[in-house]
Amino acid sequence: MTSRERDVTATPPQPCTPFAPCAHHRSPSLPPGPTNAPGRPSDERHGRRTPAASAGAGRVPGRVSAGSRSGTPARDALALLALPLVAALVLPAAFAGGGTRRWFGGRSEGQRAEAQAAKDAAAAAFYELDTAQRDLRFSIETIAAVDDSPAARRAIADFEALGRRIDEASHRYIQAVDAHDLDRVDLEASAAARARTELTTARDELAGVKQELDRFGASLGPLLGKAETQLARLAPAVERARQALLAASNALDGVRTSGLKADDLAARLAALAPELTKLNQGAGRHGVAPTLERAERVAREAETVRTQAERLPERAAEIDHRLVSLRTRAQALTTRAGQVEPVLSELRRRFTVACWQDLQQVPEQAAESVRQAELKLKEAQAAREAQRWPDATSLLSTVRALLNTTDEAVSAAGDRLRRLNAVQKDPQQEIERTRFAIRDAQRLAMAGRTTPDPRHARPLDESVARLDRAVTTLEGRHPDYWRFLTETEAVRQTVARVVAQIREERGAGAS
């Protein structure tokens, strides 16, 4: 047995499979491992393995050893049976390209990229429109909170109509996005083109609505400026109201420390507490305009309370001083009222009844007025001790009015006697005084004129005649001097009215 025969006997032939090629099939003239035909690049360099390469790995086509010819039919049948399994394992990887590459390309990929760009542009337009709408909504809410004018209501209605336009455009954009899956592997070029068209249309519509929204926002300038001005006034006004209330409260505390009660001021300040609660609740609940008006009113009333509280010690001292002064005056009037009777007695003795008859009741009236004044003074003193400052002030005013009336009545008797004495002694002085007033008015009426205005000349002529008649009353044994004095006084008043009329007319003509 030769050495070759021994080798064949010792190593029985093994069946060759596509996964385990036979070693004795390899040509002794080639190196181990797979060999490619000359001039053909290996598919494995590009990450792909063809079915033929996988099945015939380790063999050189066209070169088969002599020992393999006897098993060719069985071996081929086995290889054909295993081929589908190999293809099932190899083909997915071959088509996936290692999970990173697709086999399709060309026009489909270009359409996909354009559609994706259109989608991104539409998304940017949607975001810009949404942002602009949110910003403009803040402006509309500001206007609505402050302004209730027809222009403001019309702006709010226009914004709501634009909101519906925006909702429609956004809905169509979302529909276009949901209708096309641009990440699909099998996306066709026609589908990508249709997606690009619809997304571009959606983007254009969104941009158009955005332009309308921008124009509408620009038209809101005056309304928004007015609303922002009121809002800018709101916070300082509320703060001023709070500070005014605090200052009034502190002033009342200071007054109470000095021993004064100031109950009326405390009640007025307490009445402002509900208004402060509403201010603290804010304009969002009660409205900007009502809150602004409330803050100004609270600040004004609290400032009044503070001022009166700070003046309260001075007011108390003033009331004390008035009590003393009016009491002293009442006592003096009591003394003067007692002197009226002697004056009346002289008037009765020297002059006619018409000269003193109207003064007969002066003593009794003066005494009664002084008595009422003293009663009111006691009531005012009690109100001062109870620190009822408004009541004390009112009572003191009543006392002052009573004393003024009494003072005039008491003075009238003495003044009557003085004037009657003067005219009895020299009536010509009163006559000349009245004639001078008439002549002065006549010169003024003729200034710059050749003839006087009848409206001025007539009352002046009547005044001359009236004075002449008054002078005739002085004739006789017992002249009515008081009637003479009242007539001359009435003439002077008439003349004074004519002079005032002339000057007023000439002043109006000069202007």
TrEMBL record:
Transmembrane recorded as keyword: yes
Keyword list, A-Z: Membrane, Transmembrane, Transmembrane helix
Region of interest (Disordered), residue spans: 1-71
Residue ranges crossing the lipid bilayer per the database entry: 77-97
Entry protein name: Septation ring formation regulator EzrA
Species of origin: Streptomyces chiangmaiensis
